């Protein structure tokens, strides 16, 4: 893998959305990032949660506490499902 791809950092998401497409664009950016890096599914979820900033990080921490979510038990598909649910609720 070329060195310049190793320097690519994952996109961040601050939770500020005007429309659902803002959240969808972040998920697509993460998908693109994961094409460069060969992570296991649970590592993808860890990288994604690390990429949450501001308001998004706060709601993620609250969601983890309420639902008893652990980093070890969370995979990428489950994270995407939870993320979409939260984003849809915020926009309603």
Task: Outline the structure in words.
- The chain has 92 residues and is mostly helical.
- It has a domain at 39-92.
- The protein is 66% helix and 0% strand.
- The chain has helices at residues 3-6, 20-36, 41-50, 54-67, 76-91.
- Helix 2 (20-36) packs antiparallel against helix 5 (76-91) and helix 3 runs parallel beside helix 5.
List the helices and strands and how they pair.
Blueprint: H1 3-6, H2 20-36, H3 41-50, H4 54-67, H5 76-91
Percent of residues in beta strands: under 5%
Tell me how many strands there are: 0
Order of helices and strands: HHHHH
- Helical amount among residues, as a percent range? 55-70%
Class by alpha and beta content: mainly alpha
The dominant shape is globular
Number of helices: 5
Radius of gyration: 13 Å
Largest sheet: none
How far the N terminus sits from the C terminus, by CA atoms, comes to: 42 Å
Mean pLDDT: 85
Report the uncertain regions. none
Short description:
The protein is mainly α. It has five helices and no strands.
Provide keyphrases for this structure.
globular, mainly alpha, 92 residues
């Amino acid at each position: 893998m070329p060195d310049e791809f190793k320097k690519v950092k994952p996109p961040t998401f601050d939770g500020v959305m005007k429309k659902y497409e803002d959240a969808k664009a972040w998920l697509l950016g993460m998908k693109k990032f994961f094409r460069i890096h060969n992570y296991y599914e649970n590592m993808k979820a860890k990288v994604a949660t690390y990429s949450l900033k501001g308001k998004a990080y706060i709601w993620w921490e609250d969601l983890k506490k309420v639902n008893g979510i652990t980093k070890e038990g969370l995979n990428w598909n489950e994270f995407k499902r939870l993320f979409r649910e939260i984003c849809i609720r915020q926009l309603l």
